[in-house]
């Protein structure tokens, strides 16, 4: 087996399987990397400023009640002092209002400073995951629902943004505020007040964690039901034509309704479990506040605390309730974000079956500007879902020559095309262009050198001009028009009210099959490839248009190496060499006349197609 065989083959767990649980430390490491790579404007000063504003707001939130308490104590203590006591009270009350204003405004200012970083991190997570998804193998995408995959990327990216705001700038500062508040209560009043505050918060946190962990199963079921409903809806909408032609609208709606009923049942469980959590949290908060008020009142009766001190102690605990509410929400959402990240991180862990080698190089220029020499050397490949594949296939197409692949369905023609495009890699053997193994080439260079006109041309929901230009985005309008003319599209485009600006619809469904094939041909011709692959490129055309296109293809093939896949043998009779495939093997090869004279498999196929003419 050649050294290249199996080099880029790897197998990861399917995305449909239950993903491994995301580890918080791993997730935070990924989050830190995304923030650094986000390239947000003013990244570092924004992060530092956000941290300063967060900590400053927490300190101000704890000290504000002390100022107001001191003001009340001063007022009551100086009832006989008149104007002086009133002035002191006013000054301290204004100071309390200012500090409280700072504690309230700091989080808002922090969010304003931080939002560009959070959005940039979210965009980076989405774009990197999207790029990775595009790099995965055809087998992976053919087994996934497009809507479900899109939802995984979207939810995973949004979870990254939430973790940055909630975990780094809400949860951690809340713990710092608790420490500050405990220290202030112990220092200003008594250690018992600090103990009540700490115990209240610890009981609240533990209860929140326990109940939230119980709710995770409900949230996971809700996510799965949501993903299933979205996948079925998108699947039916993408395949609208198939659903319509088979009269399966009712079945599609019934499947969607079934998925929605599962989603509704899961949502009810989530809402009910949230109610249980909220009631439990309110109970803990109320008990803690009652204990603090009772202790402060007893201290005041004993003369060890003034009225202002009682108010300050209660206000400090009340101020903690806001962050505690955020803590409960943050913990629930952080756990939910970890769930959302599981699927995205699992997707990012998928290893592409076809990957660019670290030392990949560009394809050298073709000698004399001719097409490239394509060589298959004892190539074997078997798809996991098939009992047979191709085995020990060897052939060479000289520069500028045309080779045709013919044979019954399932013989291996499409597999050879995918191997030539390096959509899959051979499990044995090697494929080369101008003597360079495809696995040693940069993907971008290979894609520029090889263009495909498939049997079923996929178009974007965009204009005709954009779809043709997809083959070479930097092409001029004149070159796009010339490519359309070469593909016999000029008369069709001239008859459209919007001309080249006509939208083709989802997957090009506003066009006929023949029109889509001509757009695909124009796209390939505009790319000006070294190797042109035609996979039943005229199968959807009428006889008159096919004859015109065949002449166009003959002109397009000049100077290019061409690989043609055909069922109608009349379209490849002029090929330089015809390769006859059967059960993954080349059973015959030669020119049209020689194969007919041999009376073998090709001659049998020819007789079947020409019978009755």
Task: Explain what you see.
Strand 9 and strand 10 form a beta hairpin. This protein has helices at residues 24-37, 43-77, 83-135, 138-142, 146-188, 191-238, 240-245, 249-301, 307-349, 413-420, 443-449, 464-469, 477-486, 490-494, 513-527, 543-557, 592-598, 601-610, and strands spanning 374-381, 390-397, 402-406, 428-433, 436-437, 450-453, 531-535, 561-565, 577-582, 585-590. Residues 1-22 have low confidence and may be disordered. The longest helix has 53 residues, at 83-135. Helix 3 packs antiparallel against helix 5 (146-188). The chain has 18 helices and ten strands. It has a six-stranded mixed sheet with strand order 6-7-8-3-9-10, with helices on both faces. With 613 residues, the protein is of the alpha/beta class.
Q: Separation of termini?
A: 48 Å
Range of helix content = 55-70%
Low-confidence stretches: 1-22
* Spatial ordering of strands, largest sheet: 6-7-8-3-9-10
Largest sheet: 6 strands, mixed
What is the average per-residue confidence, as pLDDT, rounded to a whole number? Answer: 76
What overall geometry do the principal axes of the alpha carbons give?
Answer: elongated
Count of runs of 4 or more consecutive helical residues: 18
Strand content: 5-15%
Radius of gyration: 35 Å
- Count of DSSP E strands? 10
Element-by-element helix/strand order: HHHHHHHHHEEEHEEHEHHHHEHEEEHH
């Amino acid at each position: 087996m050649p050294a290249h065989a199996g080099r880029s083959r790897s197998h990861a767990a399917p995305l449909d399987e239950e993903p491994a649980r995301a580890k918080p430390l791993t997730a935070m490491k990924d989050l830190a990397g995304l923030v650094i790579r986000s390239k947000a404007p003013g990244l570092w000063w924004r992060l530092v400023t956000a941290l300063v504003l967060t900590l400053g707001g927490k300190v101000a939130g704890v000290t504000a009640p002390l100022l107001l308490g001191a003001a009340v104590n001063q007022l009551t203590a100086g009832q006989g002092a008149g104007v002086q006591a009133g002035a002191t009270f006013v000054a301290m009350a204004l100071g309390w209002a200012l500090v409280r204003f700072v504690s309230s405004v700091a989080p808002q200012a922090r969010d304003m400073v931080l939002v560009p970083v959070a959005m940039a991190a979210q965009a980076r997570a989405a774009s990197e995951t999207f790029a990775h998804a595009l790099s995965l193998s055809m087998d992976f995408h053919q087994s996934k629902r497009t809507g479900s995959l899109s939802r995984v990327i979207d939810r995973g990216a949004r979870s990254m943004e939430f973790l940055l705001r909630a975990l780094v700038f809400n949860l951690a500062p809340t713990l710092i505020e608790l420490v500050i508040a405990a220290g202030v209560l112990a220092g200003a009043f008594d250690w018992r007040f600090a103990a009540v505050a700490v115990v209240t918060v610890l009981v609240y946190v533990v209860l929140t964690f326990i109940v939230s962990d119980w709710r995770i199963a409900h949230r996971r079921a809700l996510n799965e039901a949501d993903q299933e409903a979205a996948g079925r809806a998108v699947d039916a909408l993408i395949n609208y034509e198939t659903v319509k032609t088979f009269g399966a609208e009712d079945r599609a709606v019934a499947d969607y309704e079934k998925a929605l009923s599962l989603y509704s049942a899961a949502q009810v469980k989530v809402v009910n479990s949230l109610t249980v959590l909220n009631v439990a949290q309110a109970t803990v908060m109320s008990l803690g506040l009652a204990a603090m008020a009772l202790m402060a009142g007893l201290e005041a009766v004993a003369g060890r605390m003034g009225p202002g001190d009682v108010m300050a102690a209660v206000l400090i605990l009340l101020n903690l309730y806001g962050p505690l509410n955020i803590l409960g929400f943050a913990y629930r959402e952080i756990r939910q974000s970890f769930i959302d990240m599981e699927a995205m991180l699992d997707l990012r862990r998928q290893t592409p079956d076809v990957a660019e080698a670290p030392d990949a190089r560009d394809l050298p220029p073709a000698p004399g500007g001719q097409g490239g020499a394509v060589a298959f050397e004892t190539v074997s490949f078997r798809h996991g879902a098939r009992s047979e594949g191709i085995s020990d296939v060897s052939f060479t197409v000289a520069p500028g020559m045309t080779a045709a692949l013919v044979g019954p369905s399932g013989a291996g023609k499409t597999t050879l095309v995918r191997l030539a495009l390096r959509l899959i890699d051979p499990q044995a053997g090697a494929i080369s262009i101008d003597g360079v193994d495809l696995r040693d080439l940069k993907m971008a260079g290979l894609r520029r050198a090889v263009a495909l006109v498939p049997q079923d041309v996929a178009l974007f929901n965009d204009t005709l001009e954009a779809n043709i230009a997809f083959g070479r985005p930097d092409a001029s309008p004149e070159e796009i028009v010339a490519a359309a003319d070469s593909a016999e599209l000029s008369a069709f485009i001239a008859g459209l009210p919007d001309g080249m600006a006509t939208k083709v619809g989802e997957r090009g469904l506003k066009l006929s099959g023949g029109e889509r094939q001509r757009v695909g041909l124009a796209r390939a011709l505009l790319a000006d490839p070294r190797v042109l692959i035609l996979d039943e490129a005229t199968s959807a055309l009428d006889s008159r248009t096919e004859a015109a296109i065949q002449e166009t293809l003959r002109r397009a093939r000049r100077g290019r190496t061409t690989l043609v896949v055909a069922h109608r043998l009349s379209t490849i009779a002029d090929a330089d060499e015809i390769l006859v495939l059967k059960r993954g093997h080349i059973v015959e090869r030669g020119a049209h006349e020689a194969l007919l004279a041999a009376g073998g498999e090709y001659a049998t196929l020819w007789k079947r197609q020409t019978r009755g003419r």
